[in-house]
Amino acid sequence: MTEPDYYRILGLTTSAEIAEIRQAYRRKVRDAHPDAGGDPEVFHELQEAYETLTDPVLRLEYDAARGTRKPPWGNRRRPGRHTKSHKVKAWRVNTTVDKPANKNAAPTTPPGAGEVMSLPWFVDIDPTKRLRYTPSVWQRGGIAAGIGAAWTYLTIQVSALVLASDTITVLKALIVPYMLLVAGVVAVACFRGLRPTRPTSFIVTGVVALVVVWLSGATLGGILLALHLVASAVLPWSVRRVRIAARLRAAVRSALKDFNAFAPSGAKPSADRRTGAVLRTLLERLPAARLFVRVPVGVHRAEYTVVCGRRVAVIAPPVPRSTGDSGAEALPSAVHDVSQLLNEATVRGFVVWPNLPVDRISGADAVIRHLSAPDAAGEIGRWLANDPYTLHLPTLRRLRDRLAAADGAESARKAPPRSTIEV
After folding, report:
1. Chain-centre distance of CA 100, in angstroms?
2. SS (HEC) of 304-365
3. Beta strands in 142-289, from DSSP E residues, in sequence order
4. Which of 16, 71, 217, 262 has the fewest CB atoms nearer than 10 Å to its CB?
């Protein structure tokens, strides 16, 4: 995307020094601050311009993107593309021993020599490992097959026991039609709609099975018949679970396999420079991470929602990018709404600050954490990396459906130009 002119925003030339940039920022930010009645959009642009031009590395990249100067050959990258993930290996710091001042002096070891450096949070994550889908069709299919085999065995045993016993001839004549009727009912129940089975049906079946055991005097035939009734109720439930898992996988697997960022129709996943760097790191280092941009929840929109396994991180900048987005103040409400939507996942909120204020420091177990931009990727990634290879299909499907249900016209509405990078 086209980079905004940060020099024009601050009223500077491209050769401005750090002191001039700071003076221009302080002069303009007083009137643009939202607390002083200024425009939040202008305040946000001033913040991004100041952060970019006062950081030597970011300024070099910014000037290179605008064509003012070219970066070193080793730092050139194609815009809008992710760097390929490489397998991370553990290493040990090779330190050298200082030379003694004279031959008789004992060698001195610098502090920290020989110690192992702290490894990155993603060191144990293999980006080439195959992803798992949950719920698993194969796992649920195996359970359903086992229940089906048990039901078939009980059907044969009950029928053989009744036919071989000295019971009334009428019961022997009715046992085969009864079993065929039960088999037909079970087959219809297995392949009807995918509505979840009500708990009352299992309760009624259990009560009937206990009554059968009591009336039969806990004989072998009564116990087998009671188990057959229970299996007849559980088998349709297990088959419907397999069908639900298969439908979920067919609905979202292809999209999740080919893409890792999703946004409402007509919008592109974009972020300011620092937040975009955090999001890109999470997507590169966590194989199962998927990004959802501007998810409508409640009265707000969760700007950036990163899902990895059963954990969901709602990430927001301190100041909302546009009306309706969740900034630092509205993030608790957005996290609560996302938790209500994704009741099977653990949801936390993270605010990424350029410079973390002292009064915003929070504990590691807080539901809403405030982090500085340099530490955000490591802290969020370490929390999301609990299960980096699992795609939880129900969570991803709910978020995708929520994006699809968003108002297309509002989703396509563009905000004023600002520093954005594709993530």
Report:
1. 55
2. EEEEECCEEEEEECCCCCCCCECCCCCHHHHHHHHHHHCCCCEEEEEEEECCCCHHHCCCCC
3. 261-262, 270-271
4. 217
pLDDT, tens only, 334-390: 889 899 888 889 999 998 888 877 667 766 677 888 888 888 888 999 999 988 999
- DSSP classification of residue 128: T
Structure-block tokens of residue 22: 């700071």
Residues 6+ apart with CB under 8 A from 392: 134, 307, 309, 310, 344, 345
Nearest-5° Cα angle at 88, 82 to 91: 140
Contact 90/119 with Cβ under 8 angstroms? yes
CATH number at residue 48: 1.10.287.110
Residue 290 falls inside a structural domain: yes
* CATH code where residue 266 lies: 3.40.1350
Residues 236 and 288 both lie in one domain? no
Residue type at 167? T
Would you say residue 301 lies in a domain? yes
Identify the CA nearest to 251 among candidates 82, 399, 71. Answer: 399
Closest CA to 48 of 417, 322, 351: 417
Does residue 415 sit in the same domain as residue 335?
Answer: yes
pLDDT in tens, 219-255: 888 898 899 889 988 998 899 888 888 888 887 777 7
Instruction: For residue 388, give the nearest of 261, 255, 284, 252 by alpha carbon.
Output: 284
List 352's β-bridge partners, or say none.
Answer: 371
Confirm whether 128 is domain-assigned. Answer: no
Regarding whether 295 and 214 lie in a shared domain, the answer is no
Same domain for 268 and 228: no
- 223, 255, 287 — which closes off a domain? 255
Cα dihedral: 83, 84, 87, 92 (round 10): -30
Token couple for 395:
């969570």
